[in-house]
UniProtKB/TrEMBL annotation:
The keyword Metal-binding applies. Its EC number is 2.3.1.234. This is N(6)-L-threonylcarbamoyladenine synthase. Its main location: mitochondrion. It is an enzyme of class 2 (transferase).
Length: 375
């Protein structure tokens, strides 16, 4: 967890200039801070502006965001196409691509914002969790900028950033429940404050996005004309629309385990076994696309959606029983790359309707890794 986090009073961020970190100010400091501004007409109000840099996995992203949450500029370079060709993320390849793109991406975000590095209030960068080689590129680039422009540095926890992104687009009060589902993560947590999280459940093995990516690879979906440039999860969602989930019966994982944890490895293996059996039946070689690929995509997506929805339902009831969440105004925030899946969102909607919760998802571009959430 980052030790120093931005402190907000309404929409105002307070910077502790001597320590070069954002910190909780005393009341007298707030009033002194407010007095230091000249609000007379014609005088430009100096907003605090933060540059955010994200390189934890396979996206090189940067954004400039002001203290009221306005996105002034953003840029992103996705490595998905390269990793699709190599059949998954190869960390040294990801590192090299981050190195090749980071300067351009940060420059693009700054140019779009019209802010020069000297006018930034701070530089925020993902420090964990993620691929060490990828994180290292963002960190050393940020270190360079911080030293060159003498700016404060804000270390960011990638999962906290995903969890709090919703507060850019919606007015969400603490506490709320968050479900983070991506290629690298799967967790359910009660968010009690900016850096106060209570973990309720996590995946015991792989994340749902990872499972989708592996199944999509085993189905050779990059060879499917409609899915060649899509991530595994996106390809599964796309194909599932054309399939019939009832053609395959895959039972949901952990249905006898009464907690909020998840598991996706079993689902991956069961699906792979069905693929091998179908390949034999259809007389096709591994590496060719099965005629039943869409039905399988629909079945695996449905089973994953049911599993995610059931665990989330249990977490909501658990929190409501303990009055950690309101019985009538509870909020469930769903984020991460897999949250852009509309079938999974629909399953979660059924759960939130049944528990009088409000379901909130950031727009798809803010669900996947991005620089805005870091800034
Ligand atoms: O959050 P993200 O951009 O990166 C991290 O993993 O942190 O999520 C990427 C993951 C990939 O595994 C991708 O297959 C999955 O999200 N994904 C989806 C969809 N779009 C992306 N999974 C299911 N349905 C989608 N539409
Ligand atoms: Zn992420």
């Amino acid at each position: 967890m980052p030790k120093e986090l931005p402190f907000r009073i309404g929409s105002m961020l307070i910077l502790n200039k001597t320590a070069r970190v954002f910190s909780k100010p005393s009341k007298s400091k707030i009033y002194a801070f407010l007095r230091s501004f000249n609000f007379s007409p014609g005088t430009r109000f100096l907003h605090k502006v933060v540059l955010g840099i994200e390189t934890s996995c396979d996206d090189t992203a940067a954004a400039v965001v002001d203290e009221t949450g306005n996105v002034l500029g953003e840029a992103i370079h996705s490595q998905t196409e390269v990793h699709l060709k190599t059949g998954g993320i190869v960390p040294p390849v990801a590192q090299q691509l981050h190195r090749e793109n980071i300067e351009r991406i940060v420059q693009e975000a700054l140019s779009a914002s019209g802010i020069s590095p000297g006018d930034l209030s701070a530089i925020a960068t993902t420090i964990k969790p993620g691929l060490a080689l990828s994180l290292g590129v963002g960190l050393s680039f940020s270190k360079q900028l911080v030293n060159q422009w003498k700016k404060p540095f804000i270390p960011i926890h990638h999962m906290e950033a995903h969890a709090l992104t919703i507060r850019l687009t919606n007015q969400v009060e603490f506490p709320f429940l968050v479900l983070l589902i991506s290629g690298g993560h799967c967790l359910l947590a009660l968010v009690r404050g900016v850096s106060d999280f209570l973990l309720l459940g996590k995946s015991l093995d792989i994340a749902p996005g990872d499972m989708f990516d592996k199944v999509a690879r085993r189905l050779s979906l990059t060879k499917h004309p409609e899915c060649s440039s899509m991530s595994g999860g996106k390809a599964i969602e796309h194909l599932a629309k054309q399939g019939n989930r009832f053609h395959f019966d895959i039972s949901p994982p952990m249905h006898r385990v009464k907690n909020c944890d998840f598991s996706f490895t079993g689902l991956q293996h069961v699906t792979e076994k069905i693929i091998t059996k179908k390949e034999k039946e259809e007389g096709i070689e591994k590496g060719q696309v099965l005629s039943s690929a869409a039905d399988l995509a629909a079945a695996v997506q449905h089973t994953a959606a049911c599993h995610i929805a059931k665990r989330t339902h249990r977490a909501i009831l658990f929190c409501q029983q303990r009055q950690w969440l309101s019985q009538s105004h509870a909020v469930l925030v769903v984020s991460g790359g897999v949250a852009s899946n509309f079938y999974i969102r629909r399953a979660l909607e059924i759960v939130t309707d049944a528990t009088q919760c409000t379901l909130l998802c950031p727009p798809p571009r803010l669900c996947t890794d991005n620089g805005v959430m870091i800034a």
